[in-house]
Amino acid sequence: MKFLASALRLEEFFIAPWRRALPALAALGLAACASGGAAGGDPTLRIWPLADRGADAIGSWRSELLSGAGSDWARKALCRPDGGCTFFGNTRGSFGLGPGTAFIAVGEIPDLRPQWARTYGGGGTDELDGAVATPDGGFVMFGNSDSRYTAGAGGAAPASRPLVIRAAAEGEPRWVRALEGGGIHRFHGAAVEGGALVLVGYAAMSADTPGPAIVRLSEEGALQWAETLDLGAGGYAVAVVGTGEGGVIVAGYLRSGNVAFAGASFLVRLDASGRPLWARRYETDVPAQPRALLRDAGGELALVGTLFDPRGGRSPFLLRVGGDGTLRAAREYRGLEANEVHAAAEAGGGRIVMAGRQRDPFVNRQRGLALLIDPGNRIRAHGTMSAQGSVELTSVATAREGEYRLVGHTDSFGAAGLDILAASWLPATRGGTEELAPGIAERELTVRTSPVEPRRVALPVEAREIPLEALVVTPLRVPGGARGR
């Protein structure tokens, strides 16, 4: 049973050229309280709107919870130019799907109006890590699966391996591939370039050493090539962007001895065959964990992530890099609390919007965090989202100019486990940024750069086709949506 008795608290800060804006508080209360959640076997996506109260003077936040009877959490948001978005994540124990985990996708028309939702799985643990849009208006989802996908198969579940699903705009699957062999553990990012799908993550270079892994599939899902890059140390690829010429640029980090999942950042440019054209390493005073790579129309790059101080501090960072790997600018955004960035998106006009979490210094919980960065690398606006439990934002996308869609999850409001949180943020971007953001110290970041000579290692990967009838796709009822009437 759900009883949503608390309000989601939003704090948003704006910086004007003539003064430092005082923190402005907008309390978001629920439009209605819900006295009962979706039963475990009910394939209905429950939507709980959170009503915006009194935020007009500082901008606008609109939020809603999406859930079933179990745990549901978001990983990725993709938006179209008309402002409609699709959210992707995972569901466990909801919608009558049994004890396993399945992918979930929710499509909306503009202004936070969900229209359709589907789950995808095979009865085991199918856990989505991300998604990427395709030129035809559809999308590709990727994650890991230990489901059998073989009729009548018994015995122990197979080892978890990457799962890739291509779907049409409203979620109808077109093809499914399981990537088997080669020691690939997980993918973290994807890009569509030259009609092909490029996935990046990590694979085992040795028993205890991960290496950045890159796989390229054709538009129909056939394997073109798969490789790891030996950059002289163990590491992970986390993001990828296309170059517009058939190749890609891959971002990641090499492991540090002080922090398990952070280290020296790197960028590698590959041609369409996977051959490295250049590679550079970017080392900061404390280990870095890049999470997002952006490329603008002029070919300039932005690498966004978090600096992990071994003493416990966490600070977002931004590197502006030329198309040849030359460092242009580096900035750190250090707060009184531990702030981490999970995702970033182009916001137009050289601006960048970031999403992540902020640790509450007094209790064991997180707040959702959003930052808007201007072309001069200064904070234009930032806000936090908090409730009686934790709130984390895991992805952000630009819906329309000046409007940003953020998704994540929360264990607040009586959630049985986790509920998906979707929010629309329209910052009141007044004036410039002559003053620092309240509570966040901006400073130039010292970065040491050096060239790297990658060594390519082919991976013996098989892209095994899974029959569409073996994939369990469950359309959900969406109240008020095209399939919910």
* Amount of helix: under 10%
Can you count the beta strands? 37
Distance between the termini: 24 Å
Radius of gyration: 22 Å
Low-pLDDT residue spans? 1-6, 12-39, 53-58, 430-436
> Class by helix and strand content?
mainly beta
Instruction: Note the main sheet.
Output: 12 strands, antiparallel
What's the rounded overall pLDDT mean?
86
As a percent range, the share of strand residues is over 45%
Number of helix segments? 0
Tertiary shape: globular
Structure description:
With 485 residues, the chain is mostly beta strands. The chain is 0% helix and 59% strand. The chain is built from no helices and 37 strands. It has strands at 8-16, 19-20, 24-30, 46-52, 59-67, 71-79, 85-92, 101-109, 113-121, 126-133, 139-145, 161-167, 173-180, 184-193, 196-206, 209-217, 223-230, 235-242, 248-255, 263-270, 276-284, 288-295, 301-308, 314-321, 327-335, 339-348, 351-359, 366-373, 379-386, 391-400, 403-410, 419-427, 440-444, 447-451, 455-458, 462-465, 472-475. Strands 1, 2, 3, 4, 5, 26, 27, 28, 29, 30, 31 and 32 form a twelve-stranded antiparallel sheet that branches. The model is unreliable at 1-6, 12-39, 53-58 and 430-436 (pLDDT under 50).
